[in-house]
Amino acid sequence: MTRVEVEVSTHALWRVVAEVERWPEFIPTMRRVERLDGKELGRGSLVRIAQPRMPVLTWRVTEWTPGRSFTWQSASGGVITTATHVVRPRGDAGFLTLGIDQMGFLAPLVGLLMGRQTRRYVEVEAMRTKSRAEERG
């Protein structure tokens, strides 16, 4: 889990978190993010993400609480990856928490081979999301 305090309202932070197709504009670990189903992002939505040194993956939103959090999952090569995005208030500001978990037969091997890179990507994504939200206010 990576958690950062963001000096904007949770509403402003959520706008940045939920606009997933805009992530490549400010997050260098995202090359391309495209919604595949043409509908508003929510439970059941499909999103394809291309990242440097990672396979292109399709993610399905499994949990969606507008203004608060979403979770999505992707399955590839015997590994199910679950990523969480949570926005919580703290006074006039907010916290952003990003988490990633991998399960499946090959998860230990994938964690060994790509764990450090994955953790670094999540940290970069949290910090860049924080910066974008604070810039946009």
The strand line-up of the biggest sheet is 1-7-6-5-4-3-2
**Sheet having the most strands:** 7 strands, antiparallel
Note the beta-strand portion: 35-45%
The average pLDDT is 95
Give the SSE order as H and E letters.
Answer: EHEEEEEEH
Features:
alpha+beta, single chain, 137 residues
Tell me about this structure.
This protein is α+β, with helices and mostly antiparallel strands and 137 residues long. Helices cover 28% and strands 39% of the residues. The protein has two helices and seven strands; from the N terminus they run E-H-E-E-E-E-E-E-H. It has helices spanning 10-18, 107-136; strands at residues 2-6, 32-35, 46-50, 57-65, 69-76, 79-90, 93-103. The chain has a seven-stranded antiparallel β-sheet with strand order 1-7-6-5-4-3-2. Strand 5 and strand 6 (79-90) form a beta hairpin. Helix 1 crosses helix 2. The longest helix is centred in the C-terminal third of the chain and has 30 residues, at 107-136. The mean pLDDT is 95.
How would you concisely characterize the structure shown here?
The protein is of the alpha+beta class.
Secondary structure layout plus pairing:
Blueprint: E1 2-6, H1 10-18, E2 32-35, E3 46-50, E4 57-65, E5 69-76, E6 79-90, E7 93-103, H2 107-136
Antiparallel strand pairs: 1-7, 2-3, 3-4, 4-5, 5-6, 6-7
Helix pairs in contact: 1-2
